[in-house]
Amino acid sequence: MPKRVDHEDRRRQIAAAVRRIAADRGLEGVSLNEVAAEAGISKGFVQHYFASRDDMLRFAATTLRGGIEERIATPLRVRDLLVALLPLDDAGRDDALVANAFLVRALKDPEIAGHFRTGHGLLRDAVAALIAAAQADGDLAQSVDPAAEAGLLLALVAGLGDAVLLGYQTGDEAIALIDLHLSRIAA
């Protein structure tokens, strides 16, 4: 009986290899040969699933949210979600490095930029919902606009994440700044 192949799973395996290379060497290090070697398959196999490097990168960009969604799936409080977005461990650091590599690519690639906009919108909505819930519980001031505050908090976390990646702030210092900001909007 012929072996049944899950083509979508194979594409995801190739995308995972792209992300590993991007985390280590940036997108400059991503080539069909390097991806094939990282995935443990032939270059022809990669080409079977992706007609070009651009196609491969665009597909890999669609898979970026996976790691982030795993980390933010359980937080029920604003602070916990914001801390989960910081690159505080190896997985978070890799996700941040890959996202930053793709961010540069998104500036020139409208399809990848669209994935970023969609992901950011979903994340902003999740933070805004947690803010509204915290207001209903009496933890955050009623004067806070959940949508606007979600935008500010995500900008804060993005900047703090870059600071942690670059080593001019520790994870503990970044968390302390999140706590400081949240204390300013507490009820």
TrEMBL record:
Keywords associated with the record: DNA-binding, Repressor, Transcription, Transcription regulation
Domain HTH tetR-type stretches: 8-68
SUPFAM superfamilies linked: Homeodomain-like, Tetracyclin repressor-like, C-terminal domain
Presence of keyword Disulfide bond: no
InterPro entries: BetI_C, Homeodomain-like_sf, HTH-type_TetR-like_transc_reg, HTH_TetR, Tet_transcr_reg_TetR-rel_C_sf
Molecular function GO terms recorded: DNA-binding transcription factor activity; transcription cis-regulatory region binding
DNA-binding region: 31-50
Name of the protein described by the UniProt record: HTH tetR-type domain-containing protein
Organism of origin: Amycolatopsis japonica
UniProt lineage: Bacteria, Bacillati, Actinomycetota, Actinomycetes, Pseudonocardiales
